[in-house]
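Hey,
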Amino acid sequence: MQIRRLREERGYSLEDLAERSGLSFRGLIYIEHGQRNPGVLTILSIASGLSVAPARLFESVSQGGSTRTEG
């Protein structure tokens, strides 16, 4: 997920995003570091806090739209 990248692009700290999304600071840390998988409602809250569509959280990092495949 692209939470950290989107958060940093907006200049938000984890505390800022926690306040804007209504989620806990610690919970966001676990999600950003891949230690927890967020549920649908949490994804919606994060997207709302970042003012983005939920799909943006799952976009590829590359701007060209291509994804890396192993093979």
